[in-house]
Amino acid sequence: METILWQQHDFILCPEKALYWPAKKRLFVGDTHFGKAASFWKMGIPVPGNNTEEDCDRLGKLVQQTEAEALVFLGDFLHAQVSKNETVRDTLLQWRKNFPELKLHLVRGNHDLHSGDPWPELEIQCHPDPWEMEDFDCRHIPIEQKSRPYLAGHTHPSYRLHSRGMNSISSPCFVVSPEKIILPAFGSFTGTMKVNKTDGETIYVTDGNEVIKIPS
Q: Which residue, 203, 211, 213, is CA-closest to 176?
C-alpha cells in the first residue's frame, strides 16, 4: 500500500487497484465490468467464466482488510445488458449477503447507461456523473475542464516499464495530480490504455502485490 496526501486528506493506494479514504472509511474502485465474460459467450467466444466470482472475492478481502463502511463504484459496474444473467446476479447477491451493513454507491458510467442499474436487491445507491462528495467529485469519465477536483475511472490506465535491455512490461496504474486521481480498472477481465506521465502528474503502478511510485 502507498499513502498519499491529496486535497489535504490521506488516501491509500491499494495494490488490488482500489483507493481507500481512512478518515471516512470509504473504499473506491473503478470499472469492475462484472459479467463481461457473458458478452463474449453471447458472441460464441470461449473465455474463462469465473472472473466475477474471483473479483468479488478480491473485493471482499479488501473490504475486510480496510474495514470500510462504504464502497463507491466509479462507473461501469456491469459490462453490458447481457451481463444481467442469473449466474452474475447470484454471485453478486451472495457477495452482498456477506456485507449487509456496507453502504454501496455507483456513479453511472457509459456501460451502466446501456446495462441499466444493478438489481435492486443489491441495495446500491446510483448517482449521475458527477456525484459531489465533501471536497471533491466522484466521476466515471475524466474531464479536462474541471471546477472541482475529482476521482475517476473509465480509461483503464496502465504504464509501460522498460528495462535496460529491450524488455518491457505494462502494469495497471494510478494517475495522480493535484486536481484528480484516475484509478486503474478493478475488473480482472478488462483491457488497459497506455498513459504517459505529463507535467504535474505522478504515476503509481501496481502488480497486485505492491504499489510503486514512478520516479520523476
A: 203
Lowest-confidence range among 5-9, 33-37, 99-103, 200-204?
Answer: 33-37
Arithmetic mean of pLDDT, 129-143: 94
Q: Which residue has the cell 494517475?
A: 175
- With contact defined as beta carbons under 8 Å apart, do 192 and 154 qualify? no
- Output the CA angle 32-95-189, nearest 5 degrees: 25
| Lookup: cell for 13 | 493506494
Q: Give the separation between CA 40 and CA 60, rounded to whole angstroms.
A: 25
pTM over 0.85: yes
Reference 191, options 155, 149, 141, 143; nearest CA is 155
Burial 131-164 (b: 16+ CB within 10 A, else e): bebeebbbbbbbeeeeeeebbbbbbbbbbebeee
- Taking residues 4-14, report their average pLDDT: 97
Residue 76: pLDDT above 70? yes
What is the C-alpha to C-alpha distance for residues 156 and 44, in angstroms, rounded to an integer? 25
For the chain, domains (ranges, CATH) are: 2-213 (3.60.21)
